[in-house]
Design a protein that fits this description.
The complex is a heterodimer of chains A (about 260) and B (about 400).
Chain A: H1 3-30, H2 40-43, E1 54-59, H3 68-77, E2 88-96, E3 101-104, E4 122-131, H4 139-143, E5 149-151, E6 157-159, H5 169-173, E7 180-181, E8 188-189, H6 195-198, H7 205-209, E9 215-219, H8 226-233, E10 236-237, E11 249-252
Parallel strand pairs in A: 1-11
Antiparallel strand pairs in A: 1-9, 2-3, 2-4, 5-6, 7-8, 10-11
Chain B: H1 2-13, E1 16-17, H2 30-53, H3 61-78, H4 80-85, H5 94-97, H6 104-138, H7 141-150, H8 159-192, H9 205-232, H10 238-269, H11 274-282, H12 286-310, H13 315-341, H14 343-346, E2 353-354, H15 367-387
Antiparallel strand pairs in B: 1-2
Helix pairs in contact in B: 2-3, 2-8, 2-9, 2-13, 2-15, 3-6, 3-9, 3-15, 6-7, 6-8, 8-9, 9-10, 9-13, 10-12, 12-13
Classes of the chains: A alpha+beta (about 260), B mainly alpha (about 400).
């Protein structure tokens, strides 16, 4: 007995606790660097500047609200057909002569949008296709607690299905309502620009299905691409610019009523 | 699944105005209301204990041990509603393994662990260690084994070792105060940092959460102290109870002032989102906000305890009034969490319409499950009080 033993006892106790806590912390600190010790392919990977940077332009003057894009997306990406899950949808805006703004998107516009306001009451009307904005400063990526959602090197916001814990925080963080909880896979789901297609040189399903070429998909780094030309020739705008998300979906002819 | 779709179709038919098509379902339900509620009770109870130990409010001594055990009982349950609401609960450990450093939610896991392992458990252990040694000598059966194991092999009983426990315990409590602030301020930040949601996104959110946490924790310990005294058939220490009520009164005033400031600021600035928030507050939230949170949970308690500050009626009346105040404050803070979590999801981020929320009775997100998560900590507390009753402690800190 003696003060020394007591102190040793305490010391041992603290040492063991510290080792346990420290071990867990260390593991979580090291884990992200795992990649460093892996494959040489990683080391030889292409520099970011040589990769495409995908984006989309939406020409609102061309959109007729047929909803083919939303339909094609659901088929291509196996999105549940119930009207609560959309990777892309079309909104119909109608500004009435009395100033009231009516917004509709029954079933995301699939099957075609029909005007419910009588012609004589309409001041103006237009369609707005919506999708994930593939933000450069994506709030969803910032919020994901485990890093299951990320921005690919070619600028597409993706979700790792095998990693997402299904907390819905990213859905809360998205200002555009572009994410949903997939009831089948039970992970957050969203537009991928049809990543499985674009990496093979194909166009996203919605772009291919659009009968009026209202959606222009392309590489923002390629100065010859249709998208860059579209941005050059038209005054374009992004949605909710005040949120500073640096969206990569650009609208031509966006009216101030659109939110 | 069919049931879920049926529920959503019903919600779809009740949409008011325009909402984005993915917004019909509320992604955070009753479980996420409980999560900040329970975490707040923990932080509040701990701060009450610290008042006695660090800030030397000695009159609160009868509630010190009780407050700590209450904090522990609720902290053990705090993450369960959170994990059970995950779509992939078995992947929850990833929050610790590969936390995303930019995510408010990811860091919470560490704050929680720090608070549980370093602050609460250590403080309680230092407070009880000597008693565990002494109790282990005179107990039988399970208790004897438990006490012996929990001493972690440190059986010293002399005065010097007691002093060491006391000093370390004090140190941990000092460390615990900023930790409790961190724990709950942090929960507020999880909501306050969502810029997509104008109802949540306010810099005051962490502070409001913190003060409302203190309010709810103090009210909880006050109620539990009265119930425990009644069950044990011992006299309630009136100076102690009066002091708890006094602190409840002051902190409730600060909380109310902060929340009012937040609302006044919104009204005065009247930003883009104000039109829809005005409709939200006066419509979908009017009962839960004005009646439950403001009137029942704030104004009535302030009036009652406020009157007691200038005029003290008979003990019997005060006891009954404190009990009533404790309960309505707890209800009020629950609805404060409700108004934040549910309220923030009722309006569309298109700022053009509303969806509706209908809680169910059964299932993981239902009322029954919510009741389980609220009753479970009380059962744990009962067990803890049986196992290590603060009133049977042979030693006490200075």
């Amino acid at each position: 007995m003696g003060t020394e033993r007591k102190i040793n006892n305490r010391r041992k106790f603290f040492q063991t606790s510290a080792a346990l806590v420290g071990g867990t912390l260390l593991y979580s600190l090291i884990k992200p660097f795992e990649a460093l010790s892996q494959s040489k392919e990683e080391a030889t990977k292409i520099a970011k500047e040589d990769l495409p940077l995908w984006g989309m332009g939406v020409d609102l003057e061309r959109c007729v609200g047929c909803g083919k894009c939303a339909e094609a997306c659901k088929i291509e990406n196996n999105v549940p057909k119930e009207p609560f899950y959309f990777r892309t949808w079309v909104e119909q805006y109608t500004v009435k002569k009395d100033g009231e703004v009516k917004i509709e998107s029954p079933n995301g516009g699939i099957g075609g949008l029909k005007q419910s306001v009588p012609d004589e009451d309409i001041f103006k009307s237009f369609m707005v296709p919506k999708l994930c904005n593939h933000c450069t400063k994506a709030p969803c990526v910032q919020a994901c607690p485990v890093g299951a959602t990320f921005i690919s090197p070619d600028g597409v916001v993706l979700v790792d299905d095998t990693y997402c814990i299904g907390c819905s925080y990213c859905i809360q963080a998205c200002p555009y309502g572009a994410r949903f909880m997939n009831p089948v896979t039970k992970v957050a789901d969203k537009c991928t620009f049809c990543y499985h297609r674009i990496t093979k040189g194909l166009l996203p399903a919605c772009v291919e299905a659009c009968p009026t070429d209202a959606r222009i998909f392309g590489d923002l780094r390629n100065k010859e691409s249709d998208l860059v030309k579209f941005l050059q020739e038209n005054p374009t705008q992004v949605l909710k610019p005040h949120l500073n998300t640096h969206s990569r979906v650009f609208y031509n002819g966006l009216s101030s009523e659109v939110k | 699944m069919e049931e879920h779709y049926k529920h959503l179709y019903e919600a779809l038919s009740q949409v008011d105005g325009y909402i984005y098509p993915n917004e019909i379902d509320l992604h955070w339900g009753l479980m996420i209301v409980l999560y900040p509620y329970i975490t707040g009770l923990v932080a509040g109870a701990f701060i009450l204990a610290s008042l006695e130990r660090v800030f030397n409010v000695k009159v609160l001594k009868p509630t010190y041990g009780l407050a700590l055990l209450t904090a522990l009982a609720f902290l053990l349950v705090a993450t369960l509603p959170l994990v059970s609401h995950l779509q992939h609960p078995l992947r929850a450990y990833e929050i610790f393994m590969t936390p995303n450093p930019t995510s408010a939610m990811a860091i919470f896991g560490f704050v929680y662990l720090w608070y549980l392992m370093v602050v609460l458990l250590l403080e309680i252990w230092f407070d009880y260690r000597l008693d565990f040694v002494l109790w282990s000598k005179k107990s039988k059966g399970f208790k004897k084994y438990f006490y012996r194991i929990i001493t972690l092999g440190i059986h010293d009983t002399d005065a010097k070792s007691a002093k060491l426990d006391d000093r370390l315990g004090y140190f941990i409590t000092v460390l615990g105060i900023p930790s409790a602030f961190l724990l709950h301020g942090y929960v507020g930040f999880i909501f306050g940092s969502i810029k997509a949601n104008p109802w949540w996104s306010t810099v005051l959110m962490p502070v409001i959460f913190l003060f409302s946490a203190m309010v709810s924790g103090i009210a909880l310990v006050m109620v539990i102290y009265m119930v425990v005294s009644w069950v044990r058939k011992v006299e309630i220490d009136m100076p102690c109870l009066d002091t708890i009520a006094k602190y409840l009164f002051y902190i409730l005033i600060i909380d109310f002032a902060l929340e009012s400031l937040d609302q006044i600021h919104r009204i005065y600035e009247a930003e883009e989102s104000f039109d829809i928030i005005k409709v939200l507050v006066s419509g979908k939230l009017n009962i839960t906000l004005f009646i439950m949170q403001v009137l029942l949970g704030t104004v009535i308690p302030l009036l009652i305890i406020g009157i007691f500050q200038v005029y003290k009626p008979d003990e019997k009346i005060r006891k009954a009034a404190y009990f009533f105040v404790g309960i309505i404050v707890l209800i009020g803070i629950f609805f404060m969490r409700w108004n934040v979590v549910i309220g923030g999801q009722l309006f569309s981020k298109s700022l053009s319409g509303f969806t509706s929320f209908k809680a169910v009775y059964s299932g993981m997100e239902g009322y029954l499950m919510a009741a389980v998560w609220l009753i479970l900590p009380l059962l744990i507390l009962t067990f803890l009080l049986w196992l290590m009753p603060p009133w049977k402690k042979l030693t006490t800190h200075e």
